[in-house]
Structures are given as C-alpha cells and as structure tokens.
From TrEMBL:
CDD domains according to UniProt: REC_RR468-like
Name of protein: Response regulator
SUPFAM superfamilies linked: CheY-like (SSF52172)
Domain Response regulatory: 5-122
Organism: Pseudanabaena catenata USMAC16
Phosphoprotein keyword on record: yes
Biological process (GO), any one: phosphorelay signal transduction system
C-alpha cells in the first residue's frame, strides 16, 4: 500500500510541529506543511496530497476561502479536506456541512490520536 501524504496548513509553527510529530510517530505517512492559504493551494496543486488538514482561522486567506479555492480547481477539488479549528459553534458546523468538508478536528487534540481520527473521518 502506498504511503499517504498529508498536507498540514496552519499559520502557527507549533501546531505544524505537533501534527507532524503525531503523524510520524504513529504511522509512516509523509507530512507536507504550508503556513498560509496561498501556500496550501500551490502545494496541493503541485504535490496532490491524499488529504489536507486545514486550519480555519488564518490571516490573509482563512480556511474557508482556501477550501473554496481548492474546490474551484479541478486539480485539487477531489482532495479530502479536514478542518482544524479551536471553536465550532452550531452555525459554523452547519456551514462546514454545507461546504461538504470531509470532517472537523477540534483543537486542542492529542497529536498521537491524529492518525486514527484522520483514518476514521476519511474511512481509510
């Protein structure tokens, strides 16, 4: 079975490190990292990851705008996206469901549980 490639998009370097550590300690997946929505779009188009973990709250281009840009591009529209967010209210959950995101992982999370959460959400 080929190694999964996960693109982690978060403007906080500490979150990038925790996610990378958790994934690489538990499973043999390749972790790509982006610090902004624009970087995410470029890397996703170039690298075609198996999934994207996307922070919702980022400066300049937030997660929702980034997700919509990914969906608008035929090269990246089929890549599953899981939002990483610190707060999810009922209205936001409805909005995420309307957008057809693959799932939502709440911050804070246990980094060692991430591969299991991703696997459950994406049914891998």
């Amino acid at each position: 079975m080929p190694i999964k490639r996960i693109l982690v998009v978060d403007d906080e370097e500490s979150i990038q490190t925790v996610v990378r550590f958790g994934i690489q300690m538990v499973v043999d997946w390749e972790v790509l990292v982006a610090s902004s929505g624009m970087q995410c779009i470029k890397i996703a188009g170039d690298e075609k990851p198996d999934a994207i973990l996307l922070d919702v709250m980022m400066p300049d281009m937030d997660g929702l705008s980034t997700f919509k840009a990914l969906q608008a591009d035929p090269q990246t529209a089929q890549i599953p996206v899981i939002f990483l967010t610190a707060k999810v209210q009922t209205s936001e959950r409805r909005q995420f469901n309307d957008l057809l995101v693959s799932g939502v992982i709440m911050k804070p999370f246990n980094s060692l549980d991430l591969p299991d959460l991703i696997t459950q959400i994406l049914d891998w």
